[in-house]
């Protein structure tokens, strides 16, 4: 009886809702006076462009849409309007010529879970706190890392540990993922904490696994849906997993920082954490209050450097080795160049200028693998009129790096792995403006110098020592270059053989 009574009311509610949605759909574009300026696929109320954007191939869909709607367009991720910037000229114009206007960070609900309420640290912060932490981190990266002999020596030492692990497989197929991540992570760990970890250290490996896991979770369909409709998908399993990982990693960072605090000698700073703590102590001694230098900010900044410095560089190295196994002629050429220029001794950073082919292979891998296809999302810091389009303050902006690294008007063969993109007719290395793997402008990757040194030394030392091949019975052509679903474009799980080429002299 009760059900029967409810039926007409439910039908009326449904009809009224459908009517409102229909009117909204028909007239919606006119409600936002400014929207007519920005092209883009037509959104449905509430759902936005959900049905035009496949969460499983989010970046490729945006890339395809850019071919139809041009270099500045909008998509609606659920009810959230997002501006997409596409193509080298437009992305550079926004990030470099309008650096301040496009320089804030957008925190989607997923990123919000990663950064926590305070939104401090570097990656997810804005304003004065971001400026101070980025400046402080850059000084420290310079002092403890980039361009320094000490960093070069640390990388060379770590290469040896990695070579030992590879050698233990005796040419049999294995997944390179874990050991590469451990090795790469140890470089940023040395800079941040002042020391490396053993690969068997459970605390260390758990921290890396959770950080990598978070990238995978962020790229999952359920997290994309959570970003669009947080109130519905907040209970999604992947979201809860992400939150658990973040909490665990924060706890672990605090433990590591606590240990360093207990043995701090301000006259002999071991790494970034020590310098931060020493600076904090100095401020306290001088009775200066500077809210940026609190322990929570140190935890976030340390976690940011650890995460940003591990997955990116590790993923790129895995792509290079996979590409070498797939294109053995290119691997042969790198090895021939190395034999000619370096011979049997350990490769050093200064050899790079004499190894243009190896350098071109690294750059081409970064271009082709395109590991951060939408960079890390930005947002406008103020109202801005950009290329004739009005964009309101606080609008999320995705600089589509895919459309820069694969820009058909910039690259001779954008969809092919072709190291010649970075070589002139005499075989000399050439820089290309559209190489924007590290983004550009005020948010550009502060770890670029360190990452480039790592990629160069790890890659050249590994191919000097080993030839990478597919597992027996797998043809080169069959090696799959389809990326796995993740926030970064990561190679799908695969195995390779590292065939020893004999020793080198250190
Ligand atoms: C191959 C390796 C790497 C690539 C491709 C890469 C790429 C990027 C990209 C595209 C961004 C986003 C820039 C933007 O918002 O426009 C970024 C940000 C960042 N990267 Fe890297 N990165 C790499 C390695 C590193 C390393 C080794 C570190 C550690 C020192 C690092 C630390 C950071 C930090 C802290 C940010 C945030 C900057 C900010 O918000 O101001 N990255 N990186």
Order of helices and strands, N to C? HHEEHEHHHHHHHHHHHHEEEEHHEEEE
Strand order of the largest sheet: 1-2-7-4-3
Distance between the termini: 88 Å
The percent range for strand residues is 5-15%
In the CATH hierarchy, the third-tier topology of the domain at 116-370 and 421-500 is known as Cytochrome p450
CATH homologous superfamily of the domain at 116-370 and 421-500, by name? Cytochrome P450
Give the biggest sheet.
5 strands, mixed
Helix content: 40-55%
Judging from the principal axes of the Cα atoms, what is the shape?
globular
Report the total helices: 17
Which hetero compounds are present in the coordinates? protoporphyrin IX containing FE
Mind telling me which CATH architecture of the domain at 116-370 and 421-500 this is? Answer: Orthogonal Bundle
How many E-type strands? 11
Low-confidence regions:
1-8, 29-36
Which structural class is indicated by helix and strand composition? alpha+beta
| Rounded mean pLDDT score | 90
Just give the CATH class of the domain at 116-370 and 421-500: Mainly Alpha
Rg to the nearest angstrom? 25 Å
